[in-house]
Amino acid sequence: MSKLHVKKGDLVQVIAGKNKGAKGRVIATxxxxxxxxxxxxxxITKHGKETHQGPRGAKTGGVQTMEGPxxxxxxxxxxxxKPADKKADDKKADETGEDS
Length: 100
Hints:
Belongs to the universal ribosomal protein uL24 family. The chain is mostly beta strands. It is 11% helix and 33% strand. It starts with 10 loop residues before the first strand and ends with a helix.
């Protein structure tokens, strides 16, 4: 199993394939397959059959559109515009020698 350069929640851009240039957040990672699922990228359709099994009754059938996995080498991690984590800010204040 290999380590991926992106993780769930990261902002990425697709750099190769039919969705080249698309940006989105990582929804899921599959390290064993070296694949990631990015929201709004590689949309696939799945056809489901209506079933009457299961603990809660019928499962509705029909066509569903969902994101498919793409190879991790086809995405590039982007800088996120989220604020820096609080621990880094606290450490910076401690280094200046000021009292709180």
